[in-house]
Each structure stands twice: as C-alpha cells, then as structure tokens.
Design a protein that fits this description.
With 137 residues, this protein is of the alpha+beta class. It is built from four helices and five strands, in the order E-H-E-H-E-H-H-E-E. The protein has one domain: Tetrahydropterin Synthase, Chain A. Bound molecules: nickel (II) ion. Nickel (II) ion binds next to strand 2.
Length: 137
C-alpha cells in the first residue's frame, strides 16, 4: 500500500456561534471565532489517497485527476466564500474545522474511488498551529 498526498489551499470566512445562545456564551465558548461580523482563515488542505501502484503508469492515482476532484468537489465551493452562508455541503452545520474536515472527506470519497484508489485521510489546517485529521470513521 502506497500513500500519496495532494495539498490545496483556500481562503474562507466563517463564524462559530449558536443562534440560541447569548453573545456572551458564544464568546466564552468560541472566542474570537464567534465575532458577529465574520472573519477569515487561510486554510490548508491535505488529501491523502492510498492504493497499489498501477504497473503501467507507476501511479496510485493520477494527481491531475486528484487535483481536479478536490477543486471541483471542495475548493471551488469554499474559496473566497462564507462557509456558513455560501457552501451547500455545509448548510445547517457548525463551521468548525472538525465538521468541515468530515464534510470534505464525504465530498471526495466516491470520486477518489472512481479513480481506483481509496481516500485515506483529510488534514485540514485552520491556522499553522491547529489542524484536524479525519480518517473516515
Ligand atoms: Ni475562525
């Protein structure tokens, strides 16, 4: 089994809040990410695919195809957008890095499998110090 990783980046706005909570409780729970007038992050996404090497191509997956899948299924929808308001696959969800990583995994899984490989993990950096890793379970 070989693992190969593609990195993509996107910039997006969000806020973490619960409508039914007071501003004080939102601030206490979510800190600066609860700012009512939104704020942005420069996200860094690492998509790791696993499989066996195709003897004809030497590839686990064609990285051009993987790049296209990530862009059409994930980053085109997120880049320069508001995660809470603009992104169909995040509608009604908390715009946390954890929830976003799971949603991204679900967006990519079947498309990667159509290329004859398996989606191993998603790593999503919200800041250079904080990232989430999701392996599909
Ligand atoms: Ni934030």
């Amino acid at each position: 089994m070989i693992y190969i990783t593609r990195r993509e980046r996107f910039n997006a706005a969000h806020k973490l809040f619960r409508e039914e909570w007071s501003d004080e409780k939102n601030l206490e729970t979510f800190g600066k990410c609860s700012n009512p007038n939104w704020h942005g992050h420069n996200y860094e996404l690492f998509v790791t695919v696993k499989g066996t090497v195709n003897p004809e191509t030497g590839f686990v997956i064609d990285l051009k195809e993987l790049k296209n899948i990530i862009r059409t299924q994930v980053t085109d929808a997120l880049d320069h957008k508001n995660i809470n308001l603009d992104v169909n696959f995040m509608k009604g969800k908390m715009a946390s890095t954890e929830v976003l990583a799971v949603a991204i995994f679900d967006q990519l899984k079947t498309h990667v499998e159509e290329q004859g490989a398996k989606l191993h993990s998603i790593k999503l950096y919200e800041t250079e110090n904080n990232f989430v890793e999701y392996l599909g379970e």
